[in-house]
Design brief:
This is Alpha-ketoglutarate-dependent dioxygenase AlkB. With about 160 residues, this protein is mainly beta. The chain is about 10% helix and about 45% strand.
Amino acid sequence: MQTVDWRHDEAIIYGKRIATKRKVAWYGDQGFRYTYSKVTKSADPWTKELLELRGLVQSRSGEEYNSRLLNLYHSGDEGMSWHSDAEVDLKPDGAIGSLSLGATRRFSFRHKMSDHRVDVNLEHGSLLVMKDTTQSFWKHSLPKTKKVKSPRISLTFRTIQRQ
Ligand SMILES: O=C(O)CCC(=O)C(=O)O
Ligand SMILES: [Fe+2]
């Protein structure tokens, strides 16, 4: 993970460009561009380590991915609020495979219509696959927590639609 080019994420919130505490890095097959929270990012080429990990995640999940977003949460003070990953550039209902490293964090799902909640603990080395209609029917979040003092990295593999 030392070879990863971490940057603070930027998002446009209420029309203002802000840098988040969480850091991200974005890799893809070609010079992909990807719009997330209304900010367009261009992808860095894969590093050797990232390609190896993609191979593992693809074989474990039985899905293929052409890009990946890495998130670095320095501690439980950082998280991600409720959202679904349905950006226009993402393949509709495409799988998202998320590999967790470091601290165990709770990951929550909330059904968009019934508000039904499902919580899972994402442990070091675990792989969470969200596929089919998960993004259409559910939102997910990574709640902040006072209990976690150490960092967690998630490597989220996605498929960007070729236009
Ligand atoms: O860090 C995680 O496990 C979730 C990240 C996430 O939901 C996202 O990048 O869209
Ligand atoms: Fe997400």
